[in-house]
Amino acid sequence: MSVYRGVVPQMGFGTWQRNGDAAVDCVQAALGAGYRAIDTAERYGNEAEVGRGIAGSGLPRDEVFVTSKVWWDHLAPGAMRDAIRGSLDRLGLDRLDLYLIHWPSPSGAVAVESYVETLLALQDEGLTRHVGLSNHTVALLGQAVAAAGGRPFAAHQVEVHPFLQNRAVAAASAAAGIALTAYLPLARGAVAQDPVLAEIAAAQGATPAQVALAFLMAEGHAVIPSSSKPERVVENFGALRLALSGDEIARIRGLERAERYTRVDFAPAWD
Ligand SMILES: NC(=O)c1ccc[n+]([C@@H]2O[C@H](COP(=O)([O-])OP(=O)(O)OC[C@H]3O[C@@H](n4cnc5c(N)ncnc54)[C@H](OP(=O)(O)O)[C@@H]3O)[C@@H](O)[C@H]2O)c1
Fold it and tell me: Residue 164 belongs to what H/E stretch?
């Protein structure tokens, strides 16, 4: 059972809404359970606690893949440089593994070409090993890829779960050679109530959450589930052991119903 496939580990722990000592504890629980990737963002307000959790795990720095993200009001060159330095300071690290543009600039206030240039400059300066995008539409992704001039994005992080499979963005990302990271992979827990996932879970001796995560990984995506409960942190990691049949994957593909949970007024016009 390996968490690695490609640059970004297949299974990471999401830390949105994990704050204070609980954030320290759940990061340590995740690393203790075998996760080797931790997803945070300046916007989550928990980078200091995430950093304490990583340091307290006792794992060598090189064994933990740390992702953070720049918020959309920090996309201008000087602001992004200050933002990554702030993230590194709070995390207690001298380099990130992956730095993502959290959201495209609302109404294009900062041009895609400008923030991609800044992001690549930060990578050149050694502040992050890899760079990537989040919440980009097919059109914005195309602009970003063109602006990067052949330099790779290691990930595109978007909302993807059995009820929103985001196929247009997945196809455009794949065509550009960019792996998707599925955020909200459990549809904020709603997968646990789905009868099809429950039926497949019973046949597999697994849980519906594990089936949802195994499905997303079988589709080639990385996943970053989150939980405040240590037993669920372990349960979710167990999805790496599941092998779904072609028939099971086809049934889960059929659960698509364009159910988007992320509703914010600064989002781009989704595909
Ligand atoms: N790039 C972006 O714009 C963006 C946006 C949103 C999120 N993210 C990232 O994606 C990560 C995951 O998203 P998320 O935390 O919002 O959603 P999620 O992982 O889909 O769902 C988390 C919810 O599911 C519940 N849950 C967890 N494991 C479960 C299980 N085995 N069975 C049943 N319920 C379970 C949790 O409740 P309990 O705590 O009670 O277990 C929690 O309420 C975030 O933490 C963040 O790192 C990125």
Answer: none
